[in-house]
Predict the 3D structure of the following.
Amino acid sequence: MTSQTGIIRSFNPHSKTGQITCDLGGDICFTAANIATQGQPASGSLVEFIMDDSSNKLQAIKIRFI
Protein backbone atom coordinates (compact mmCIF):
# COMPACT_ATOMS: atom_id res chain seq x y z
CA MET A 1 0.00 0.00 0.00
CA THR A 2 1.35 3.39 -0.95
CA SER A 3 0.60 6.78 0.52
CA GLN A 4 -1.59 9.19 -1.43
CA THR A 5 -2.29 12.87 -0.87
CA GLY A 6 -5.43 14.90 -1.36
CA ILE A 7 -7.79 17.52 -0.03
CA ILE A 8 -10.85 16.92 2.13
CA ARG A 9 -13.77 17.86 -0.10
CA SER A 10 -16.52 17.36 2.47
CA PHE A 11 -17.16 15.99 5.96
CA ASN A 12 -20.47 15.31 7.72
CA PRO A 13 -19.94 15.55 11.51
CA HIS A 14 -23.23 13.75 12.22
CA SER A 15 -22.43 10.60 10.23
CA LYS A 16 -18.66 11.07 10.69
CA THR A 17 -18.04 10.35 7.00
CA GLY A 18 -16.55 12.37 4.21
CA GLN A 19 -14.87 12.54 0.81
CA ILE A 20 -11.26 13.21 -0.13
CA THR A 21 -10.36 14.44 -3.61
CA CYS A 22 -7.14 12.61 -4.51
CA ASP A 23 -4.27 14.49 -6.11
CA LEU A 24 -4.14 11.73 -8.74
CA GLY A 25 -7.84 12.25 -9.54
CA GLY A 26 -11.11 10.90 -8.24
CA ASP A 27 -12.80 10.94 -4.86
CA ILE A 28 -12.45 8.45 -2.04
CA CYS A 29 -14.63 7.95 1.05
CA PHE A 30 -13.39 8.04 4.63
CA THR A 31 -14.70 7.80 8.17
CA ALA A 32 -13.51 9.83 11.15
CA ALA A 33 -12.37 6.59 12.81
CA ASN A 34 -9.63 6.32 10.14
CA ILE A 35 -7.99 9.63 11.05
CA ALA A 36 -4.62 8.90 12.64
CA THR A 37 -3.99 12.44 13.95
CA GLN A 38 -6.11 14.60 16.19
CA GLY A 39 -8.27 17.32 14.77
CA GLN A 40 -11.65 17.82 13.16
CA PRO A 41 -11.70 17.24 9.39
CA ALA A 42 -12.54 20.41 7.49
CA SER A 43 -13.09 21.09 3.80
CA GLY A 44 -9.83 22.16 2.17
CA SER A 45 -7.54 20.37 4.64
CA LEU A 46 -4.51 18.71 3.04
CA VAL A 47 -4.16 15.07 4.01
CA GLU A 48 -1.98 12.03 3.41
CA PHE A 49 -3.62 8.60 3.50
CA ILE A 50 -3.46 5.00 2.36
CA MET A 51 -6.06 3.54 0.01
CA ASP A 52 -7.64 0.35 1.34
CA ASP A 53 -9.39 -1.86 -1.18
CA SER A 54 -9.82 -4.90 1.06
CA SER A 55 -13.59 -4.36 1.49
CA ASN A 56 -16.28 -3.92 -1.14
CA LYS A 57 -15.47 -0.24 -1.71
CA LEU A 58 -12.29 1.80 -1.85
CA GLN A 59 -11.68 3.71 1.39
CA ALA A 60 -9.01 6.03 2.84
CA ILE A 61 -7.32 4.80 6.02
CA LYS A 62 -4.51 6.09 8.26
CA ILE A 63 -5.41 9.67 7.36
CA ARG A 64 -2.90 12.27 8.52
CA PHE A 65 -3.17 16.07 8.20
CA ILE A 66 -0.20 17.66 6.39
Q: What stands out?
A: The chain is about 0% helix and 55% strand. The chain has a mean pLDDT of 92.
